[in-house]
Design brief:
single chain; 320 residues; alpha/beta; 6-stranded parallel sheet; 3-stranded antiparallel sheet; 14 strands; binds 1,4-dihydronicotinamide adenine dinucleotide; binds oxaloacetate ion; oxidoreductase; L-malate dehydrogenase (NAD+) activity; NAD; tricarboxylic acid cycle; EC 1.1.1.37
Length: 320
């Protein structure tokens, strides 16, 4: 059986980490693409030189031309710019929208059958625009954010309770901004819903509230620490989990930015919801029944995303 082909558009901090993880997991052969000359080639060679040590078989190559992504099974997009301290993700919209236009054209020409995972920020608006620019079907174009935000939520809970991260299941939906929606009622530790943990006295309400707030601002916390860019290890691991579910038809239920067609009362917009990812891309969207407070939080987050999508339409009238 021929190996799968994974193309990484953008070979910066996340792109390089994606290539390393995809190699270690033997997901397929890997092409790193970037406009910066030498970077994708250098990272490809460096990672390939680690393969004898770690014992993985994967061909790695670097390129500056879109023809290199031809026939890719999975494409992960990180091309663009990250934020620096003092900036919001939304400040990246204008510059990264231009990048999505180029990337979308490249995918349309060379890899129209790929499953595309967008990571570039501001995530929900960028994946919305990328789907339009590429013309690929909506079930094959998704955004990575919910897996990362949920992983942060899970990690903070496991740390607070001093238990294994493996036994913490938590979900964060909505847009990838500070008004994202960590779902307390639907998150569990050892199968016990978080509100019950509070009732049992294992976690204080104040601590839980602080964890929810820290999760919402998780990206900014790393930006403030790194100063030169944003998180890349956990974002790369999150996108690899999505790619693996597609390539191996695992049918995992993951929170991803997906295009809605009536679910949650929305049509055409991209926002973080639980979906099943299998060999057909987004195979199903789960519609969670929210209580009033959750409904209000989700609506607020969706309103932020809608505002950014409107801004994209203003900048690129072809998207309207
Ligand atoms: N969705 C999410 O949860 C997360 C999103 N991000 C976003 O991911 C993006 C990438 O982050 P990093 O890898 O840390 O940034 P980075 O700056 O290390 O890498 C970005 C790469 O894109 C390349 N690039 C720029 N314009 C390009 C173009 N037109 N075509 C091809 N390549 C181009 C640059 O040369 C650079 O190598 C940022 O927008 C960041 O905000 C970061 C973390 C989490
Ligand atoms: O915060 C940022 O700019 C990068 C990002 O989206 C995250 O780490 O969640």
């Amino acid at each position: 059986m021929a190996r799968k082909k994974i193309a990484l558009i953008g070979s910066g901090q996340i792109g390089g980490t994606l290539a390393h993880l995809a190699g270690l997991k033997e997901l397929g052969d890997i092409v790193l693409f970037d406009i910066a000359e030498g970077i994708p080639q250098g990272k490809a060679l460096d990672i390939a030189e680690s393969s004898p040590v770690d014992g993985f078989d994967a061909k790695l190559s670097g390129a500056n031309g879109y023809e290199a992504i031809a026939g890719a099974d999975v494409i992960i997009v990180t091309a663009g710019v990250p934020r620096k301290p003092g900036m919001s993700r939304d400040d990246l919209l204008s510059i990264n929208l231009g990048v999505m236009e180029q990337v979308g054209a490249g995918i349309k020409q060379y890899a129209p059958n790929a499953f595309v995972i967008c990571i570039t920020n501001p995530l929900d608006a960028m994946v919305w625009a990328l789907q339009k620019f590429s013309g690929l079907p909506a079930n094959k174009v998704v955004g990575m954010a919910g897996v990362l935000d949920s992983a942060r939520f899970r990690y903070f809970l496991a740390e607070a309770l001093n238990v294994s991260v493996k036994d913490v299941h938590a979900m964060t939906l909505g847009g990838h901004g500070d008004d994202m929606v960590p779902l307390v009622r639907h998150s569990t530790v050892g199968g016990i819903p978080l509100p019950d943990l509070v009732k049992m006295g294992l976690l204080s309400q104040e601590k839980l509230d602080a964890i929810v707030e820290r999760t919402r601002k998780g990206g900014g916390e790393i930006v403030a620490l790194l100063k030169t860019g944003s998180a890349f290890y956990a974002p790369a691991a999150s996108a690899i989990a999505m790619a693996e579910s597609y390539l191996k038809d695992q049918k995992r239920i993951l929170p991803v930015a997906a295009q809605l067609s009536g679910q949650y009362g929305l049509d055409g917009t991209y926002v973080g919801v639980p979906v099943v990812i299998g060999e057909n891309g987004v195979e199903r969207i789960f519609e969670i029944e929210f209580d009033e407070a959750e409904k209000a939080m989700f609506a607020k987050s969706v309103a932020s995303v809608s505002g950014l999508i409107e801004a994209c339409k203003q900048i690129k009238p072809s998207l309207a």
